[in-house]
Amino acid sequence: MTPLRLSVATTDYDHFRDFRLGEVRAAGIETVWSLLGHHEIFARSIANGEWDVNELSIAKFSAVVTRPDATILALPVVCSRLFRFGSFYVNARSGIRSAEDLRGRRVGSPEWAHSAAVYMRGWLGDEAGVGLGDVEWYQAGANAPGRGEKVELHLPEQVSLTRVPDRSLSDLLADGEIDCAIIARPPRCFIEGHPDVVRLYPDFEEREADYYRRTRIWPIMHLVTIRRSILEEHPWVAGNLLDAFEESKRRSVERLLDPAVSRYPLPWLAAYARRMTDLLGGDPFPFGLAAIRPTVEVLLRYSYEQGIAAKLVAPDDVFPAGIDVPVVI
Fold first, then answer.
1. Which structural domain range is residue 90 located in?
2. How far apart are CA 292 and CA 185, in angstroms?
3. Pair (153, 251) in one structural domain
4. Which residues does 95 contact at the CB level (< 8 Å), separation at least 6?
5. CA dihedral sign of residues 122, 177, 139, 311
6. Are residues 225 and 76 part of one domain?
7. Domains contained in the chain, number
8. Which conformational region is residue 149 in: left (phi greater than 0), alpha (psi within -120 to 50 degrees), or beta?
9. Per-residue pLDDT, 277
10. Is the separation of the CB atoms in 96 and 164 below 8 Å?
């Protein structure tokens, strides 16, 4: 049988590398891989649908998949996931000491449909009692001006969102023009040691571990999407791709746990990886819908509540039927 040829676009993740380089193969499939920056992949896939399979922000995915003419579904394959209590950066002069202090303040993010911010805005409402209408929201590029939204929004009436096209979040935060930024990567002002810019939660690692133990939610930033039309014609493709991604990830984790073969020249990395493996139940980076369901479910709800998803959907509505794999408990 001639293999089905699929175009794939992701950034260069170690847990995808063996699949990308052909060390691991998906049965019946030939992949033609493009390595690009994730912002470029997001923009081109949303605007033009350029690839058969590609990385996509989970927040933006929630917007695209809930359109009436949605042309994609997701595979339960995670590109990146990060806890986000370390993503709150505040201007110390604002006097903000806790999430509750954000009520009535000015808070920025690079995009409204920014996965890190979607999770933490939802958390603010669920656990800190700070609703969407309690904050003055701002949107601007992280470290440079000019960044805009990539998906259409339907903001709730109570949301006040000001777009700042000519300033960056980093500059706004350093100058005290916003009180807080929720941002995936540390803003430049923080990295450069601005005396007024600090993390709201310096103990974010302990908070994140506690949050996971209580909720089993481990925020997903980016996942892998696939054209619906491919699955309609070749339903076997989803499972075969998942198997290949799973094996590629397994090899990556195996390397992390063995300092003799790890690609990363850092001391104690293997010991840290083993601690994370224990904390996360045996698989430090699980794929499969059962494993990621709690996280996806809360993201889909937050995305709908925040005016990003066009309708409220369940995880089973946005992944191929029968895609699941056994979960390591």
1. 85-215
2. 23
3. no
4. 101
5. positive
6. yes
7. 2
8. beta
9. 87
10. no
CA-CA distance, 61 to 213, in Å (whole number)?
Answer: 27
- Which of 215, 241, 270 is the endpoint of a domain? 215
Which residues of the chain register pLDDT less than 50? Answer: 325-329
Q: What is the CATH number of the domain that holds 51?
A: 3.40.190.10
- CA-based radius of gyration for the chain: 20
Structure tokens at 227: 């054209």
pLDDT at 121: 98
Q: Find out whether 7 and 237 touch, Cβ atoms under 8 Å.
A: no
Examine residue 43 and state whether it is found in any structural domain, yes or no.
Answer: yes
Question: Cα-Cα-Cα-Cα dihedral of 54, 55, 57, 59, to 10°?
Answer: 50
328 part of a folded domain: no
Question: In sequence order, which residues have a C-beta less than 8 Å from that of residue 225 and are 6 or more positions away?
Answer: 45, 53, 54, 55, 56, 61, 72, 73, 74, 75
Q: What is the pLDDT of residues 210-250, one digit of tens each?
A: 999 999 999 999 999 999 999 999 999 999 999 999 999 99
User: For 138-180, how does the pLDDT look when each residue is reduced to its tens digit (9 = 90+)?
Assistant: 999 999 999 999 999 999 999 999 999 999 999 999 999 999 9
Tokens of 193: 């040691």
Query: Do 171 and 69 fall into the same domain?
Result: no
How far apart, in whole angstroms, are the C-alpha atoms of residue 106 and residue 134? 10
Instruction: Tell me which residue of 103, 127, 107 sits closest to 117, measured CA to CA.
Output: 107
β-strands 197-199, 88-91 pairing: antiparallel
* Spatial distance between the Cα atoms of 204 and 70, rounded to a whole number of angstroms: 37
Q: Partners of 227 in the beta sheet?
A: 72
| Range 226-230, long-range pairs (CB < 8 A, 24+ positions) | 226/52, 226/53, 226/72, 226/73, 226/74, 226/75, 226/320, 227/49, 227/52, 227/53, 227/71, 227/72, 228/70, 228/71, 228/72, 228/73, 229/71, 230/6, 230/52
Q: Strand pairing of 53-57 and 4-10?
A: parallel
Q: Name which of 152, 157, 326 is nearest 246 in CA terms.
A: 326
